[in-house]
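Section 5.1 Outputs to date
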Amino acid sequence: MTDAQQLARQILDTVGGSSNIAEVENCMTRLRVEVASPSSVDLPALQATEGVMAAIAAGSNLQIVLGPGLVDRVADSLEGLRAGPAGASVSPEELAARGAAIKASARSRSDGRTMRAIRRISAIFIPLIPALIACGLIAGINGILTNLGWLPGVTPFLAVLSSGFLSLLAVFVGMNAAKEFGGTPILGGAVGGIIVAAGVANVTVFGETLAPGQGGVLGAMAGGILAAYVERFMRRVTPDVIALIVVPTVTVLVAGSITLGVLMSVAGVVSVAIGTAATWLLANGGAFAGFILGGFFLPLVMTGMHQALTPIHTTLIDQTGWTVLLPVLAMGGAGQIGAAIALWMRFRHNEALSRTIRGALPAGLLGVGEPLIYGVTLPLGRPFITACIGGAFGGGVVGLFDQLGHSVGAIAIGASDLSLIPLLNGSSGYGWALLGYGSGLIVAYVVGFVATLLFGVSASVRADLEAQSAAPAGDPVAPEAPIATGPAAASAVDSVGAAR
């Protein structure tokens, strides 16, 4: 049994078994589990499970922070455990439990439609992130080599490697959109492919000639979703004997026609509006806009609302070649790193806290901030606020560069902090983008560090941490867990506004 399978088994046991699980899904770092009966979940045991960075319960929804890579393997293993061995019998009790799980899932869907809609849209783009990072890094390396005039025989080769995926991005978005909404991925890809087809230039709609790529990923996403609904309807009304021919043909014909005749034009207007608004915001709002965006990004990550930005980033990259929002928002994580380093220095004799920070800090420096959020800053309350302050000042610096005409952009998503450096670009080239982003990082680190050192920990929390540091081994004061997570983190969410 692999480590991922073993961890999946432990998670399954602590959440009440397979009969208590209604749904399993994951993003890049978190495993999300919908349960039928929240009272059947042993949350303290789940939080204490080795490999689980944090576990937070919100009604019937569990968010389990595992980290990148591992979360994908655990999600697959957990789905396999839920399915059970082929041909296994199902007891009446388990069938009843599954019915209760389905009912709980439906109830949670109605209670949190906005968040579920955001997660579904995000799920269309999350599988694309590895390819976006890979192609972005190759494009970044190619840009540096081109600017330096090095290896001229290699740069055309790298240009093809980096641009192949991006040139067909609409196809992949259409496939994922159809799959997420219950359709056949390849039919969604066929509809998405219409957007980048060269023949689009021969089509006139509303008196205007379309252009290949018009509408971008938003048009492809809408077309893929539409294809899924058309296909599902056709499967219900088409006799089985002719379904193989009729269903895909009608799906592509109807969804493709609407995409070509309506969605491309509408999505094109929306895409241009998004690009114009983002550029205008930072070009005119400058430091103030960057301050607000950088300061409020960590709360978005904490609630999962940051997923709504994924299609916006992708649209900006597809439209202009880079997203000017990501470097500003990345400052939130930089402020948190400064806060974590301050806590590490201030309470270095507290082995539990130091161990947690040492484990989470490398991931934070590579752009994965959730271990620090749920394991360090959020449970302690005030450090989460001082991290946001650091992020605000860093975002203000990046926004100032945008306002001065040297826009700072990222040519791929999925990276942050130090890992974003090779993916930078902007209106004045890589050098200015690196200067703007690097300056923002340094300011966010320093402000987050100083703010946390000066007033980041209340007197009561400081006394508790110092008491834990002074407690001898085996003393009840010294906790075995690194830092309170789960309920502690949830209570910290409620107390953050009051700064403890």
